[in-house]
Design a protein that fits this description.
Layout: E1 3-7, H1 16-26, E2 30-36, H2 46-59, E3 64-69, H3 73-82, E4 87-91, H4 98-110, E5 114-119, E6 137-141, H5 156-169, E7 175-179, H6 184-192, E8 197-200, H7 202-205, H8 210-218
Parallel strand pairs: 1-2, 1-8, 2-3, 3-4, 4-5, 5-6, 6-7, 7-8
Helix pairs in contact: 1-2, 1-8, 6-8
Length: 219
Amino acid sequence: MVEIATSLLSLEKEDIVQDIYNLEVAGTNYFHIDVMDGKFVKRDTTEIMRKYTETIKQITSIPIDVHLMVKDVEAYSKAYIDMEVKNITFHIESCKNETEILKHISNIKENNIQVGLSLKPQTPLETIYPYLPYIHRVLVMSVEPGEGGQQFIPETIEKIRELNKFAYENNYDINIEVDGGMNEKTAKEVIEVGANMIVAGSYIIHSQNYKEAIESLKK
């Protein structure tokens, strides 16, 4: 089953409560929180994403999928662990070595939160293979992290195909999540090669009908 995580990056904060309600009614599976520190990427969303997460926790039980685009993984992980989110994904590029990566994975899992690893478009897929036995999902970036509304990078399709094949051959039970440039066409392409979670922001938020947009991504 394909699940949809709606990114709140392009929402207007004045309408956040109504939009969260509308997205819940429309059938989103997750709310996707893009946490950027202004260092790992240029944009800084730390404050607004914390407020969005607090609001979600107050008004809905839809699970929260957090994507950390930050240098200090430990500090930001702790903040979202304290808010009892469903999943925390951090970037492999944020870490200096294997020991650090495994430390963050262990810390998140010990708090009964699912953990994911993400990689930028230019990062070789093989760098993530050693960690597949320990994580719940891989978030494949199909755009450069940091801004919404970018165009899908076509080479992502082959990367997902290879990841899905490797996971299957090694009996790794992971979700493959794709983020960036998702619309009806690109979602279909990545689902066909093994993705089972789609992160979409602009395509849903700027649509005339949230429910129709979400359903079109699952087809």
